[in-house]
Amino acid sequence: MHLKKNIATSESGFIFNPSTGDSYAANPVASEIISLLKQGTSSSSVKEHILEQYEVDTLRLEKDWDDFMHQLKEANLIED
Fold first, then answer.
1. Planar angle of CA 56, 65, 48, nearest 5 degrees
2. Which residues pair with 15 in a beta bridge?
């Protein structure tokens, strides 16, 4: 999955979809994930990065990852 090319993001966690006019606020971890996806980083590499940077176990990360990807897809921010 990757972030759609037209999605605007900021370092402060602001996300804007110019196609729909919708905007969102992301927490620091979500903002970091979105930034990495926007750079073209693979999902597996993003997950590895999160596991290295934060105290989270693999099972928790997988559940949270699936939930977050579902939210991004529902918001029309990512593509498969």
1. 55
2. 9, 24
CA dist 52 → 1, 27, 56 (Å):
21, 18, 9
Q: In terms of residue numbers, what domain contains 13?
A: 2-79
d(CA 34, CA 30): 6
Alpha helices in the chain (DSSP H): 28-38, 43-53, 58-74
C-alpha dihedral, 29 to 31 to 32 to 36, nearest 10°: 140
Q: What total number of domains does the chain contain?
A: 1
| Residues 6 or more apart in contact with residue 6 via CB below 8 angstroms | 17, 18, 19
The pLDDT value recorded for residue 72 is 94
pLDDT digits (tens, 9 = 90+) for 33-66: 999 999 999 999 999 999 999 999 999 999 999 9
